[in-house]
Amino acid sequence: MYWWHKAAQSVQKRGSSRNSGTRRFGLITTRAAKQTFNVRVIQAYTVDPKHPVSIVYAVPDHPWVDTVFAAKVRIAMSVVAPGNRNGSLVTTSSEVRALNSNDGWDVAFQTDIGKVRPNLRLGADVLSAKPLRSNQDLCSMGFATGSRGFFLSPAEASSMPKDEKRFLRQILSAHEITKQRKQRFVIDAWDIESENELRETAPWVCQRLLEKVFPKRAENNDPKLRREWWRFRRSNQDYRALKSGLDRFIVAPETSKHRLFFFEGPNTDVEHGAYGIGLSDAHFVAILSGRVHDVWALAQGGDLGATPRYNKTRCFDPFPFPKLNEAEKQALRTLGEELDAHRKRQQSAHPKLTLTQMYNVLEKLRAGETIEGKDKEIYDQGLIGILKDIHDRIDAAVADAYGWPVDLTDEEILFKLVDLNKERAAEEAAGHIRWLRPDYQNQEGKKAEAKGKQTELDVGAVIKIEKAPWLKVLPEQIAAVREVLEELGEASPEQIARRFQRARTTAIEPLLASLAALGQAQVTEDGRYAA
């Protein structure tokens, strides 16, 4: 995206002065142009109030093959010109292998005219949606252990002394969530303050980590990891806080063909690559699993290759949940419990049955395709007809909760959600916040003041946030600030500075500005930064 950035600057120059700059440019990029960080690079130029540029031609997803035997790479194309104007969005309607193998593939296109957004879409401006305070502090990535030495097999876990089993956690990777689930365990000694304490408190754990983790940590460039070698590379206190005190919480993979949300118990954790959502009421599982949120997540999130990616800051934080009365909440709660129980029951009865398999067949069923062969076996094992019925009832109940018809098109849903996001953001600016979990998010019961009088609320968790040392080398500082911002989702320079020992706000601000300029952070209206 560096060259996109440089070319857009030249087009902007043409827009401000007819005697210089570039009239228009066209670039071929990878499909990664639609990923969140890259979209922000594009958005910075398309929403510029003085000299905006416009995408006048775009192909968001095109095969890059010269012959039948070439690698199946996907690319995006964009043409940009100065000003605020409509453009042509070209999508592939079919791809068929040519009769002559040397000719590669025959591709048919569909062209639509309208305002092409930075995420190479037409229609609702979903990128204008703002993070809502009602959703803050509830969704966070799982642990990044940084070493396979923390992991134990079931046999090794069973051999751990009974008085040290408090350090034992069952853990799930994103792959295990969607594919074949395994029983894996991890040693989590995050609350141990020193090596001496670890030796005295848990000698078995200490010896295991000395053997499997310490040798490589001792050579690590990060002084914090060398000093606290028994801890995960990223213990993610926000994740710990949001699930603390809950008898269950919602888990979701970051990258998956399908948007999957289900409950896990308090003794299970997830790795980096999967999200924990600190909500235990089943009506949230129903809403997140419904078509409304699915359409929103696909429009807002990026992708990894051809696989959609659920991005917390774009998919969860700005999503406007419906305002529910008790009857609506109970109806959705019943459906959420039914959905969660159905999938778990069928997977328990058929251990090799995966969620991806179940939802692949559900997708075919909805498309009216014939279910046969291996798909028929999955249909029978997963009771996919019943799964479809549950989802249909969820979609109807969610639409009813919003007060919308159930048969809205995807674009109509997006327009309504963008409008609702703006409405909620205005409410929050006026001091009215519809907390999703007020006992956790607003523990002191403070009322938010109207914008202009707003003060920082202390909605932090009871778990103490550890301060990392402030590194001396600039690239390491930028990387550290970016990691904290990704962990927090959104924060002010002061909040980030408080995460480091002896870090000044004046040192943090230019680093955040640099990340924003590179498209790796976004400046919010109130001067904060979002990942």
Task: Give structural notes.
With 531 residues, this protein is α+β, with helices and mostly antiparallel strands. 40% of the residues lie in helices and 17% in strands. The protein contains 21 helices and 20 strands. It has a 5-stranded mixed beta sheet. Strands 6-13-10-11 form a 4-stranded antiparallel beta sheet. Strand 4 and strand 5 form a beta hairpin. Helix 11 packs across helix 17. The longest helix is centred in the middle third of the chain and has 24 residues. It is globular.
- The geometry reads as globular
Helix percentage: 40-55%
Helix/strand structural class: alpha+beta
Give the C-alpha Rg: 25 Å
Strand order of the largest sheet: 1-3-2-4-5
| Mean pLDDT across residues | 86
What is the multimeric organization of the chains shown?
single chain
Give start-end ranges of low-pLDDT stretches. 453-465
Strand share of the residues? 15-25%
Sheet bearing the most strands, described? 5 strands, mixed
First and last CA, distance: 17 Å
**Total strands:** 20
Topology:
Elements: H1 2-16, E1 25-30, H2 36-46, E2 53-64, E3 73-82, E4 87-97, E5 105-114, E6 139-141, E7 151-152, H3 154-158, E8 168-172, H4 174-178, E9 185-187, H5 195-201, H6 203-212, H7 214-217, H8 223-227, H9 237-243, E10 249-253, E11 262-264, E12 268-270, E13 274-277, H10 282-289, H11 291-300, E14 303-304, E15 307-308, H12 312-316, H13 326-349, H14 355-366, H15 374-382, H16 384-402, H17 410-429, H18 438-441, E16 468-469, H19 474-488, E17 490-491, H20 493-497, E18 500-501, H21 505-517, E19 522-523, E20 529-530
Parallel strand pairs: 2-4, 8-12, 16-18
Antiparallel strand pairs: 1-3, 2-3, 4-5, 6-13, 7-9, 8-9, 10-11, 10-13, 14-15, 17-20, 19-20
Helix pairs in contact: 5-6, 10-13, 11-17, 13-16, 14-15, 14-16, 19-21
